[in-house]
Amino acid sequence: xxxxxxxxxxxxxxxxxxxxxxxxxxxxxxxxxxxxxxxxxxxxxxxxxxxxxxxxxxxxxxxxxxxxxxxxxxxxxxxxxxxxxxxxxxxxxxxxxxxxxxxxxxxxxxxxxxxxxxxxxxxxxxxxxxxxxxxxxxxxxxxxxxxxxxxxxxxxxxxxxxxxxxxxxxxxxxxxxxxxxxxxxxxxxxxxxxxxxxxxxxxxxxxxxxxxxxxxxxxxxxxxxxxxxxxxxxxxxxxxxxxxxxxxxxxxxxxxxxxxxxxxxxxxxxxxxxxxxxxxxxxxxxxxxxxxxxxxxxxxxxxxxxxxxxxxxxxxxxxxxxxxxxxxxxxxxxxxxxxxxxxxxxxxxxxxxxxxxxxxxxxxxxxxxxxxxxxxxxxxxxxxxxxxxxxxxxxxxxxxxxxxxxxxxxxxxxxxxxxxxxxxxxxxxxxxxxxxxxxxxxxxxxxxxxxxxxxxxxxxxxxxxxxxxxxxxxxxxxxxxxxxxxxxxxxxxxxxxxxxxxxxxxxxxxxxxxxxxxxxxxxxxxxxxxxxxxxxxxxxxxxxxxxxxxxxxxxxxxxxxxxxxxxxxxxxxxxxxxxxxxxxxxxxxxxxxxxxxxxxxxxxxxxxxxxxxxxxxxxxxxxxxxxxxxxxxxxxxxxxxxxxxxxxxxxxxxxxxxxxxxxxxxxxxxxxxxxxxxxxxxxxxxxxxxxxxxxxxxxxxxxxxxxxxxxxxxxxxxxxxxxxxxxxxxxxxxx
Length: 735
Prior knowledge:
- This protein is of the alpha+beta class.
- It folds into three domains: 22-234, Glycosyltransferase; 248-374, Glycosyltransferase, CATH 1.50.10.100; 380-734, Beta-galactosidase, Chain A, domain 5, CATH 2.70.98.70.
- Helix 3 crosses helix 4, helix 4 (84-106) runs antiparallel to helix 5 and helix 14 packs across helix 16 (355-365).
- The protein starts with a helix and ends with a strand.
């Protein structure tokens, strides 16, 4: 039967009008970013009943209530990081965001009016501002409210969410003023006003695109969203999606390291949730095989004892309880319902007030958490995952140990010149250490809270790390651009019942010099302990001075060779490349055989590095602090193994944890190293290390074949052995 054309036309117009009306309503509905109307309904219901979400809500409400009686303060910008005006503006965006959440859950318009008043105060101030007066201290793009535009973007990410949360309580006049005189100018300043930052594949660009894109969703500016996703010219050469593609490896490792990974996680997580809530057809959480979810998990894995591994420019006190990862874990649990994430949420001890936070809170209240599994893993570096890797080895034998090995890429401007370095952790403490960043974050008296000059002159230099220095110069001669173009190679990584082993190499850190290092975290089951094997091979076309530092945390206890110690006057070890910051406190030259250095860590355990030496190595004992007139550097210690005029050299060492020191109960156990024999031989592609320790004799075999971990039969001292993987340990007592 044919339907009359007029009826069809009328029906089509009705459906079209309904669709347009529905579309308009969807656009007009607020909140519509991270927290949606559906979330709000569930959250309002939740706070009527006891539980951890309700507890978190009333705690937040109390904090906001404490601030609301005070006048709104929106000061004229003056200070750099850590100064009063800087911190006030940070506090303001957090207050607006929190008050917006309390408004949505309480429906008390007093909270919305508080946000409105602050937004109007900013709308009055912002048009009067020039670039920040403290901008001259840095070359980075300046902001107006803040000394760098990065902070301005962070302000927008929080403020646009606050605005979204109180939008339905605002008058049309207020909306017009706030948008035209504040939010729109800020968004345009951070995008069209600073294209080099907005289009940059860098965490600064991530924050900028997230803030502008979210503003686009709230203020019905789809063009802003497109530019945020694809670059200002929408070419795809920059923008949020390009950042997801370039800044993370396929395994979810962020090129600048875990400290900046957790910082960049917030805009990635926040904007991605806003994208999914507004345009689920983009399937943002499926992008690059779910790389964002992998990034959240990788951030957790790159921690020990609740703190992130402090490679590159890292503040060593940052850990998994950072608010960025709290949001990340809530998102990860919401997407996967993996009970391991609830374990991390419990350790974080924070419930965020969002739909995802509500899911976490309910699951924790039901006792659904299961232990999160920290694993031995190699995280490929670079967008293709082939620019080296960051390797984490772990063991639970005799306590919790972790070894971090870094045959990873440079890490952009925040990277350090530390190819093939390592760090070691045991029983909750850092044992073989990395300096991290030279910075007192937001401590104005310390260079305005910014990176100190010593970050460049010491912390980034190779001698500040546990890797090889040639002729007292840093890798790539300290050139970041060259470093970014040359990454190490991860030769192999394997974990099995014997432990974990990895090998990496680089040929371009120094002209004509090949560096190759193999590290293994080895389980000695009979002794219920682990040891670290370190084999560092250096080959060069010409003769060089080779320095191999080891930075340790603790008190030097003993050496098995004599030291000549400077007790009355100290001298500086060198003149540049970080050496100018090292006091030479003493030196010694061990006889051929085994050289031992022992120290006591704050965890009450002793550690001994036993090394094979031929009588040609000098040990230099150093302390940081020379040429430091403002006392900016920590006075940490190291010893440097030095050989001179060498084309080739092999450093072979075993790190051995042992004993216990308990001053409260006044006892000391096993303060002396139990390792009595260490021998190294090479047999084709096999590295064979014989160890005698605590009365046990072991043979450690490492298969370094380029073809992979194929089964190999071999002889050692006339006895047959077989190895099926990269690493094997044989107890010789029974043979």
